[in-house]
Amino acid sequence: MLGCVLALMPVTWMHAVADSRVRTVADVPAGDVAVVFGAGLRAGRPAPYLAHRLDAAAELYSTGKVKVVLVTGDNSREEYDEPDAMRTYLVEQGVPDGRIVSDYAGFDTWDSCVRARKIFGVDRAVLVTQGFHVRRAVALCRAAGVESYGVGVSERRDATWYYGGIREMFASGKAAAEALLRPDPMFLGPTETGVTEALAAGHAR
Prior knowledge:
By secondary structure, the chain is α/β, with parallel strands linked by helices. It has helices spanning 2-18, 48-62, 82-92, 109-118, 131-143, 159-181, 194-204; strands at 22-23, 33-37, 41-42, 45-46, 68-72, 100-103, 124-130, 147-153.
């Protein structure tokens, strides 16, 4: 029984921190920046789950809920570039290229949250991801210093959805440790002004 309680504590923590901050595209509070987390490519294009995240981000932009979209994903090898594929997709959906900022070292949720705060200077954001992942994203970004609301993108209950839900059960323990220990991401590097410049350009119009 004690083991079960300990195993469920990280999940309970995530829900306690994030439940009140999970919204839809329609009712999420407006903010300057949306953060879209990578979720895989197929033949160089966003896989369906990632495309759905990007569709939600494009809707947030088109309805004036956000002014800039920060796309964060994996570019650890030359032939695999999530951020550029995400940028291309968003431009196709009508988001101006100058309103998109790329983080090429968002290798996992914690890294993306820390880099959003420390590298790109984001302290408030709307996080866009699937419903099974959104609470972990909100909890980790808040631990990293980013005041966050999350948009949980709906999906049909397919094998990928069930896999994602099961994976979150195990990922919650790692997330709790990251929130407690606050390790540096795999890559940190110098600060970047892309978000600030994109926001300034928007205000100048």
